[in-house]
Amino acid sequence: MDETRGRSCAFISPRQTILEIRKAGGIHENAGKGKYRAGNYRKGKHRAGLYGRVYTERRGTNGAPPGENPENYARCGRAGRMPSPLAQGRPPKRPFLDALLKFAVFPSQEPTAAMTQADHANAAPAREQPQDENKLIAERREKLKALRERQAAGGAVAFPNDFKPQDRAAALQAAHGGKTGDELQAGEKISASIAGRLMLKRVMGKASFATVQDATGRIQIYVTREDVGEEAYADFKRWDLGDIIAAEGYVFKTQKGELSIHATRLRLLTKSLRPLPDKFHGMQDQELKYRQRYVDLIMDESARQRFALRSRALGVLREFMVNEGFMEVETPMLHPIPGGANAKPFVTHHNALEQDMFLRIAPELYLKRLIVGGFERVFEINRSFRNEGVSVRHNPEFTMMESYAAYWNYLDQMDCAERLFRTLAQRLLGTLQLTYQGRSVDLSQPFARMTIREALHAHTDIGAHVDDAAALISRLKKLGLSEEKDQLSRRSLPALQVMYFEEAVESELWQPTFIMEHPTEISPLARANDARPEVTERFELYITGREMANGFSELNDAEDQAARFQQQASAKDAGDDEAMYYDADYVRALEYGMPPTGGIGVGIDRTMMLLTDSPSIRDVILFPALRREA
Hints:
By secondary structure, the protein is α+β, with helices and mostly antiparallel strands. The strands form five sheets. It has an eight-stranded mixed beta sheet with strand order 8-12-13-20-19-18-17-16, sandwiched between helices. The longest helix has 23 residues, at 301-323. It is elongated. Residues 1-129 have low confidence and may be disordered.
């Protein structure tokens, strides 16, 4: 703020003056002197400036303004100093406010192009009292009504669709942000044409500033009555924050060095009927961010960056898989028989086929049918659905990448998973040293590999009781599991070990760790270990205490697969909602012969939680599942 020119006064409205006097706690006796000018209000010194000048010039007895009782001001102890009514703990009197408005003198100096958005931000605009949102919407509807009436009378279209922006905010900043003002003014003017949402606006007489936000960023607009015309400027002053506007003009730099567009033409493209959240606080309600993601994206730059990174991640993932020799395919989302995972499906009905259908819980069995058909390496980035709980790690609708490679086993898939995660981190973040929720994650070192038994020994004090079913049941009950709900006594020893691992160890696996050799009875699609048939050639990848990937050497013995399906069907008949159905067609496909195959499924949502340092899965899903609004 340039104090020597008294420029601050040009930004102060009568209402703003009143509010600032309330904040200041009174008028200093040395009003009008350099260090007490209004421009210093926000710098922590005595505050007076314009306000003090008004009263030192027009004060009455004991510094009282005309119309006020001088005795009320005698208590100040100094002539020329006025106490703040709010500072005295009482509401301001109307005579005081009226006198201020009556005798205040406001300079008429117009702002110049040298004044930047930072300049008028320093003027401490008045904080309006919160208004009823319905009232604000009604006011905006009235403005839209006026636009429609103007169109009916032969004026401009209320919602035009003929403007094509030639520039983007980020591109303009990149191309001209490094140039000086003199360089931009030398020679022919550099034209600019943009469109976006009006995020900031400050109207000041014959010239104003605005900030427009497009998909790439923000840029400041400088608008003058002289350049855009009387009618357009009058329209601009009636526009609201949130409106979609178009601006054409030329780029220049303000005295403070901010790249701006000097507008020569303005247009309103879309009238916004709902007010945006307060610019200083944004959306504070986290659930409201999930429910109204469109508003969250408007207000929060980090949200836009987070989902832009997700889009880039999918591109990097596809490129990685293609470079590894995989072909991307698409498989059905509506299944006559749900399969590929132990999960409860969503059920729908197909009217034309007159049969119930199931939303996909995993694409696995269709992808392996393609391996049977001769495609040796396939992958799919898929949306899957599971009718299960909702938490910071689970959403009923989620994204996975599943891949299958002939002549690979689970060890090959673990190696590939390490390469994939390092590639994503390096390409997207430029580093293998990540930070998640304040703790470091190192992707540069070889990922740890251990069996479930080894993990139990490493992270609990189970010791010699690791093979004691009774001891495991006792520990599980202490952790909150019950016989009635979890049927602990009916579980085998390997199943109890897995349950204890999930309850006591899983959250401790912060650094990348592969957990291997899951029990055969809970891995119906995985190949059994030749030396230890009670466990499978299976792994799960954990990072930050969460499962990121699951893979195994695929079971390609058709008879063994049929027997395991039969066991799963029996479990379902006994009341296990997550047990698999018997899939006769998949067994038939295996009977034609499937080569030795390794497969993996990678959770995209959880991977993005890691890469964006997001605490909840809802933060990385554009429209997460929520309870319907009342």
